[in-house]
Specification:
By secondary structure, the protein is mainly α. Helices cover 31% and strands 0% of the residues. The two termini are 37 Å apart.
């Protein structure tokens, strides 16, 4: 393997890994809708849920 093809292979690997690692949502984890994590005596949060922002690639998922 020549040094040029080795460099090309490494560069393509870095580009692919960078593209794959950028997938996902930024922010805290979201509990399932029917989770029972709150205790009966705890007050409910007063803030309304934030509307989910659409992203251009969302239809592909």
């Amino acid at each position: 393997m020549t040094s040029r093809s080795l460099l090309s292979t490494i560069l393509m690997s870095v580009v692919i890994v960078s593209a794959i690692s950028a997938c996902g949502r930024k922010g805290p984890l979201e509990p399932p809708p029917a989770s029972g994590t709150s205790m009966p005596g705890e007050p409910k949060p007063a803030t309304p849920p934030v509307k989910d922002k659409r992203f251009i690639l969302d239809p592909l998922i």
